[in-house]
Predict the 3D structure of the following.
Amino acid sequence: MARRPLIKLNIYIALATHLLLLLIVYTLCRIGFYAFNAILFPNMNPAKFVQILIGGLKFDICALFYLNSLYILLQIIPFTFRFRRGYQLFCKRLFIITNTIGIFFNFVDFAYYKFTLKRTTASVFTQFAHEQNKTKLGFSFLINYWYLVFLFILMIWTLIKLYKLIEIKKEYTRSLVLYGTIRAIIMLLITTLVIFGMRGGWRHSTRPITLSNAGEFVDSPDEMSLVLNTPFTIMKTIGVKKLVEKHYFDEQTLTQLYNPVHTPQSDSTFKPLNVVTIIVESLGKESVGGLNKDLLGGHYKGYTPFIDSLLDNSLAFTNAYANGRKSIDALPAVISSIPSIQEPFVLSAYSGNKVSSLPGLLKTKGYHTSFFHGAPNGSMGFSSYVKLVGIDHYYGKTEYNNNADFDGIWGIWDEPFLQFFAKKLSTFKPPFCSTLFTVSSHHPFEVPQQYKGKFPKGPLPVQECLGYTDMALRKFFATAENLPWFRNTLFVITADHATVSHFPEYQNIQGAFAIPILMYYPGGNLQERVSKLAQQIDIMPTVLSLLHYDKPYFAFGNDLMAKNQDQFVVNNNDGNYNFYMNDYVLFSDGEKSTGLYNLKQDRLLKKNRLDALPATRQKMEHSLKAFIQQYNNRMIHDKLNIH
């Protein structure tokens, strides 16, 4: 005789109860995952584990909403046939089958994690696709881990029994139109909540949650797997391009061609300057008049008069490039010397790798470390990334704590937030290393009401906003120069990426990545315009060089202060590499080159010199392949840190 249901519930309450049951199951899976792998997490403590359990709910909700999206839809459609016995029997089977699959993958990682030290991703399907003895391997796994099989069966049996305890209460109505209208509104509300859950938040500035967001709840990349769940990592890596291991050169030749392990030879004493890095949203080189004196017959003024005034008092790199085209590409490039190849590093399957960073290295020298971003906390996943790379303090819209200065979309206006930044820096014990990311020069390209009409609009809407941010920077420096830490501070100013362009000289691949990079030290003699190639990933090694940092470290970029070094710039556009050396840029997919242009003689890139300069082509192809081999292999094998 079948067991009678324990309770009858409204269909929506029953749905919420079933999903809550799954959240409990996933939490138990997380506890089980830790229990089977506790030896691999030696620094765990009860308080930290509670934080991980709470943080993990965000990823569990996302995974469960994806897995159960069809089940949820079938339960909320505004039709009365959903109460039929056969319909609900189908829903029950769908619920059990889909969630059995999800729980199965969680259990697999109870055992498999110790071999890979990361949660299973979608690559597992291709990894074993051509394995000849899959069946034998499967049976071997079941035998060796029979106790996991038993626990898995017990959990699924319990899930089925608990599901059966709830019966959906049938609804009756006299007006189908009224019933359908009300239920359609409820369906819309639930769908909205589900979408928010899948995204990991509801703010405009929140990017869809990904693997790297787990860093927000841990102290080390090693612990991210505790926050994640395996269905989430599989779903989030489906379709993600995986890097392919390369073997163009033997190790000795590779190291001679390109070595991202830096071993400083400086005999000088470490110079504990404060380091303040300001990343300006959408500050393309085209908008900086002081870097474009050849435009409009020498009459072009640009839109950043304050930055122009700094150029002659700074170490200004006039031939500098971003390593990506999106804001999310910039932070790893600037503070960790990691370029985005094919996709943003923080969205890639390798975002859990152990990485070094400028703040993290300086923290070993006693530096206070912080990051400022006026957007709602969690925007762009920055709070997760900065924690992973060793930055101790995060200041966002929440810490600013004054919605009167909120622009309504992206964050706190740059002018008040930069003043907040200056005052906050004064509370830190020197030396400190702090990074700020501005927000105001972003679509929809507005300026505060009191500044309407105050800045030149220009042919591009972003240029008025850049004028506003430039003014905000001028006021920041006016405040900072009266503070005791100012003269002992190295300021780095750069952009996250370039933006749309107006002049033909910038309407090409070169112009699409051109940005300013300048380093300003008011207490020293750091004044030179440098025309050598530079890129965002060079900032970290160059700053370390200026401070006479004396320990080995890892960085894909180069020290721009080094002499007799072949500088290069690399960025990737839709899977194709733009590789710069000396006066040339090479376009290649990594295997086959399609273009070689002289940037000095042919700024508009109209004359392809690929066949005319075989020696230059060969040298650049070898250098590019050396970079690709180091990048791919180190990403795949988690070798982005020498410590």
